[in-house]
């Protein structure tokens, strides 16, 4: 078991440390772990994601769920933050997702455009901002340029920067795909080299080996793969993304392996709210049981 | 029957609330519903739209029609606002349409460029601004970037932002087309996620199913489709666009279903002014009869 | 007993509400009351204030005392915030005091110059900023101008603004003095009229009547005076300042009357730390007992 | 013996720490102590200060003396830095003195105007900037305002800020004078509250008691006075100024007491260069012998 | 043997000279030569480069290695600088690498986007900045434009600019490849013409002649090729890049020839840290033995 990286050892500025401390020690289990509720699928995939549980289409339902479930934060776009967060302001941390796009046009040269600024996150009392970096697309240079401005604003204003580090594009598809150990490991490292305070990655699949670079062609257990990914992120905290809905036991086991590897926590959306309310909370309780076993003080 | 969303529950800033209150409670039926007259077709389609009723080519005729018809506002481009609104300033609310384009070049990667600014809307005494967002085109990232600046100005200046949420582009055509339930629903949600105060959509066509995402492949009544669209817009008020000229009874029935779904009102142009003056007013009277049945206090 | 003003009824923006919620409900007694530790006397009076308890000259001792005493926040100047807050970032809220001065030159036309900005408060993760407004001095116009810029930055960035509303100058001395009911009442109202989110005032002395305006010449109990002051502040929360060291019982009774009047809390410095460590905590415990009786939910 | 404050415990940003490390550990005795050569007397007092040793009027002579004497840095105005530092760039650290004035007009409301910027210090490869803050003058509010801009630039660019904390003005003269324990102690604290990384003060004279605040009226040894001043500076490093030429033994004893109190070092100008070259170096050797006894690691 | 170019003859501004002096004479062998440790491979190639020695994936291990090995500097991206350099600030010079990219998408029109600014390098106390210029790609015009802004900032702030002068793209592949004498020589000259203070090149391969321009078709010894390259760089200092892991003896011989040609030093990454810790230091010792033979005073 690798221990979670303690805040004081991460080279954080005062403001970033203050805000991450609030997220990690004044919400959720208050033990340095984190469970986040991402809710930008209405933009990223459209309302189709809410058909499984129509109540989840209402942002108010989701913010309340975040409170009831004891989440450490909710990640939403500016429109929902402007119209729904006031009522709960300060009760659950806000991670303002700064960029986002629809999935209608082709993803070949994916770039997620900015929809809000770090200063707006400050204005709304957010405790972190989120940025989706598509690692490996042909649009990489535009993405890095857009990201640079966000990172500098976040540095200037002491705002923790959570990077959704997502491998994408044709070259990634040809080299193992976006969930391969190679791709996820590279994405985690890229976010770290570029100054992410927190990196959100998908769980790596070491069995996806077609086209990956030589060192990744070997046999790796999923535990050794996630261990490596967390190490690649070095002083960036790691969050494991739930991704699309999957079996609960498998998700819980992924969560356990992630925490064992030294991840700080989980960011689970559809697996949480694509089911009936009380069932959501029961699943959340299972995730919290895992997190409770990995305190960081 | 879903009730119209009351202003006080929408997370609006003081200035936005003041201006929307003027539009919804001091004009038209003064009951919280809205009937808008859009008049940017001269730019969007060219003067061909005025051949059915040449008098309608004169902006002065249209502004007077808006007054006579008891509209809650008129949506026009900067040029007409500069030259025609002075005379009626304050008598009928002005929605300054900020972007717009001709329909001469291809629509494949449609982007509607800015022709005016939020600050100009303030200068002219406008009570809202309008922005056309083409959801799903390959130009999406440029559109979002342009929109971001508009939204921030509107936020800073307390100006309500009405988003013309229009699905467009090759990918949309391949996934059910721009009027499909899938496309309209996604567009409404996108505008809401990106901070629209009011969303203008076309009436959804659930029968357009070719290529749509799985959840939209089922059978949906038009009522259940428009219900879903209004829900997807959550705290953004919804306006239903009339679109091209169609049969009056069909239009009135669409209007009724929209209001039943919780829409705030209608934005009807060609269906209103592509006919002789008194006929226009008779059709407007039928629309007002509908709106009168859905007061919001 | 007047109840404390609840946050949701104060016309606060999202960010200000989020930050005040953190201060009032996630620290201290978590019941909507507040106990703040001000520590800018090293600048305002010089190190002489630390001779009574030399340990108090060390800012680290004071921040720890704030944690041990369960304070809702600590108010310090930028120099101490830069060098001492990192270690405790997020554990106790920071109120960055933006202006301040030495007491060496004459106070006749007192103006407290800016030493830091609202943006720096954001950078350091502060939850509020403090500004000393000298009400009634000949320098009033410069003070108001300087304050205007601070207030606008605070508004833009969603940062609660705490105004030290201090009557000062020759004219005040001629009209009852800086602690008269007349002067304190006027100062509270001035801060409220100028947009303070929280007003810090000294406890009013209705018996100081020489030279005050006619309505203040009558007999007022201290309870009725503090009642009036809190009413004058209307939707600005009120904090009562401890001022110089005085008898404990008298201070506790002032605290009780203030809370009874609807004040949100207390801001006591020298009365707390100008004594030995454990004695400080015992006095704080008495203050907390008072606050516990006036919860706001 | 109080130990020198180690860099890692001072709440410094990366750039400030890097530059102070260079000054304290890569120059001079390389043991964490510092000996600086100030050379702005040509501006502050005029060439009269060079009559004792005309060679010292040549800045080139002085920079070479700083190298020969193993100084940790030289503090000069922009004009001399521009014209004389290139030749020795990097060999001895440059402290660019940002403000300065002649002593021709009255000092009653002294304010030292800016002659250069922090960015110019960066351009010249300086490792620190110096600012004279006149504590207690009627011009205090203008001084603080000017200082604020300098401090923010220094913070933004990671440049250590050395504050010449000098009590001045009529009120100071009436309260013990500029060298009184009261005045020096207050000045050290003021610089610390306002964010100085290093404070330069004169050695305090506890025997100057006429008009000082009560706590300073007692009997204090010079050691206890300098101890208190270093404590008042808390996490700002302290440099003791040599001031005008005085007896060598007295100066060396002051130096010893200062280091004993926890000061980081000395900044001696006239006492060094107002004598013949080799004599200067012999005096410097005595100072270095003191510093060698107070290493900080 | 050509002698190393002395700093005073290079037309450097004061700040650039100060910083290069620190790098060349206050670190490493302190004799005017340089050995740099580049560590941006985690971004440029991904974590696969760390599989040979997993410890090397930890930036902290690398910075310590730079200290133990007596390197003159470490070249890293902003993310690692922000989170790992504070601890060692000032102990080993920082070269902040300003641009960088992943190697996932095609290199045909390679452009390395900016991830940080010169001002950030100043803020972090860096002594130089690094920029990768891809000489000869179709994206050359964007690269030059981006470089222009960096060079101007470096000029304004007195920051030495190290250019990674790398021939790249289809045209280069058709004209001898990126390591040909022709390509390396042209790249060195390009960097010099565009204002590099230091040029980093790969060792030229005169035997790669297919497609090169006529003058490079002759027989050249590797010594005469590197001699020419250093001459092409004229007053830009030259660093020879180690590139991928190769045989130690070959590397050492390359190093010797480079220094013989008048290069200032070496920048070796994978050849250093892709092996066990003590082995790394033994290899570094061999490189230092070479550098010791080429002092520049």
Notes on the structure:
Five copies of one chain form a homopentamer. The first copy, chain A, is an alpha/beta fold and 297 residues long. Chain A contains twelve helices and eight strands. In chain A, strands 1-2-3-4-5-6-7-8 form an eight-stranded parallel barrel, surrounded by seven helices. In chain A, helix 6 (140-157) links the parallel strand 4 and strand 5. In chain A, helix 8 packs parallel to helix 9 (222-232) and helix 10 (248-260) packs parallel to helix 12 (277-292). Chain A is globular. The two termini of chain A are 15 Å apart. The mean pLDDT of chain A is 96. Chains A and B meet through helix 4 of A and helix 6, helix 8 and helix 9 of B.
Q: Which quaternary structure do these chains form?
A: homopentamer
Q: Could you give the distance between the termini of chain A?
A: 15 Å
Count, helices of chain A: 12
Give the strand line-up of the largest sheet of chain A.
Answer: 1-2-3-4-5-6-7-8
Q: Indicate the structural class of chain A.
A: alpha/beta
If you compute it from the alpha carbons, what radius of gyration of chain A comes out, rounded to the nearest whole angstrom?
Answer: 18 Å
Considering residues with a beta carbon less than 8 A from a beta carbon on another chain, report the largest interface and each chain's count: A-B, 36 and 44 residues
Number of strands of chain A: 8
Report the portion of residues of chain A in β strands.
5-15%
Q: Spans of chain A with pLDDT under 50 lasting ≥5 residues?
A: none
Mean pLDDT of chain A: 96
The rough form of chain A would be described as: globular
Summarize the biggest pleated sheet of chain A: 8 strands, parallel, barrel
| SSE string of chain A, helices as H and strands as E | HEHHEHEHEHEHHEHEHEHH
**Helix proportion of residues of chain A, in percent?**
40-55%
């Amino acid at each position: 078991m690798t221990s979670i990286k303690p805040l004081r050892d991460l080279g954080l500025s005062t403001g970033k440390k203050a805000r991450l401390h609030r997220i990690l020690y004044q919400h959720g289990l208050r033990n340095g772990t984190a469970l986040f509720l991402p809710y930008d699928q209405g933009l990223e995939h459209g309302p189709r994601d809410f058909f499984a549980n129509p109540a989840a289409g209402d942002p108010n339902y989701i913010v309340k769920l975040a409170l009831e479930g004891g989440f450490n934060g909710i990640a939403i776009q500016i429109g929902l933050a402007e119209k729904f967060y006031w009522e709960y302001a300060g009760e659950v941390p806000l991670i303002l997702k700064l960029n986002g796009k629809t999935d209608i046009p082709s993803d070949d040269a994916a770039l997620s455009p900015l929809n809000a600024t770090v200063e707006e996150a400050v204005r709304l009392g957010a405790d972190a901002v989120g940025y989706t970096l598509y690692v490996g697309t042909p649009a990489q240079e535009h993405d890095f340029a857009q990201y640079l401005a966000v990172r500098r604003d976040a540095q200037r204003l002491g705002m923790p920067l959570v990077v959704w580090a997502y491998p994408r594009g044709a070259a990634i598809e040809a080299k193992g795909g976006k969930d391969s150990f190679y791709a996820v490991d590279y994405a985690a490292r890229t976010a770290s080299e570029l100054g992410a305070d927190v990196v959100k990655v998908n769980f790596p699949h070491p069995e996806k080996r077609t086209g990956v670079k030589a060192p990744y062609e070997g046999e790796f257990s999923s535990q050794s793969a996630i261990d490596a990914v967390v190490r690649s992120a070095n002083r960036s905290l790691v969050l494991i993304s739930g991704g699309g809905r999957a079996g609960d036991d498998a998700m819980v086991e992924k969560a356990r392996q992630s925490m064992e590897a030294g991840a700080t926590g989980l960011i689970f959306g559809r697996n949480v709210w694509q089911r009936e309310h009380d069932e959501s909370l029961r699943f959340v309780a299972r995730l919290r049981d895992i997190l409770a076993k990995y305190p960081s003080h």
